Amino acid sequence: MVVFQVRRTRISERMRKLQELVPNMDKQTNTADMLDLAVEYIKGLQKQYKVLTDCRANCKCSAMQKPD
Fold this sequence. Notes:
Elements: H1 2-21, H2 31-57
C-alpha cells in the first residue's frame, strides 16, 4: 500500500507542476484531460517554433545577413 501512495503522491506533484506550465488548465480537470491539454499545448509550441525558425531562415533583413 505504501508503494502505491508514494506513486500517487509523485504523480500528483508532477500534475501540479504541469498545471503551472500549461495555460487554461484548472485543478478540476481530470488527469487524462490534463495530459491531452498538455500534449496539444506542446504541439502548438512546436508549430510556433517551426514558423519562427522558418521565418528567421528566410529573413532578408540586414541584421540577419552573414558578413562576407
